[in-house]
Amino acid sequence: MADLSAPCDLSGQTALVTGAAGGVGAEIALCLERAGARVFATDLDSARLAEVRADRCAAWDIRALDVSNIEDVGSVVGSVCEEAGQIDILVNCAGIYRMQFLPEITERNGTGCSPSM
Length: 117
Ligand SMILES: NC(=O)c1ccc[n+]([C@@H]2O[C@H](COP(=O)([O-])OP(=O)(O)OC[C@H]3O[C@@H](n4cnc5c(N)ncnc54)[C@H](O)[C@@H]3O)[C@@H](O)[C@H]2O)c1
Known about the structure:
By secondary structure, the protein is an alpha/beta fold. It has a single domain (14-104), classed as NAD(P)-binding Rossmann-like Domain (Rossmann fold, 3-Layer(aba) Sandwich). It is 32% helix and 16% strand. It has a four-stranded parallel beta sheet with strand order 3-2-1-4, with helices on both faces. The longest helix is centred in the middle third of the chain and has 15 residues, at 70-84. It is globular and about 50 Å long. It starts with 13 loop residues before the first strand and ends in a 25-residue tail after the last strand. Bound molecules: nicotinamide-adenine-dinucleotide. The site of nicotinamide-adenine-dinucleotide has 19 residues, from helix 1. Residues 18-19, 21-25, 43-45, 65-68, 93-97 line the site of nicotinamide-adenine-dinucleotide.
């Protein structure tokens, strides 16, 4: 069985992380960088992403990216491939998570769940 606690060597690998200004995305981007990968960190909130990179003293290349916009995705993936050759690792952490009381959930307020279910 693989030893998951052992450090892995990702030297020469290129990683693209979405939602990298967020809690999970930033930590994963840091782990990938520490393992030797070249990290392209992206987020909808590029100002926050720049702050997070500075706070963590990270060396990520950063890009603004809205994953819900297909043209945006194509353009960022294209520019990363042009610069790095290819993307070896893709981590999708972009997302929204809203806490809501069950009786307040409706079909229209973004949960995707039908109230009749
Ligand atoms: N943290 C948890 O305990 C937990 C548990 C279950 C699921 N998740 C899911 O994991 C993902 C990451 O969680 P997190 O805690 O880091 O969340 P977070 O809110 O800290 O980070 C999410 C990031 O996604 C970015 N984002 C939102 N919409 C985007 C879009 N359209 N394009 C690009 N970026 C966008 C936000 O700007 C934010 O920086 C989320 O999808 C969340 O729903 C988290």
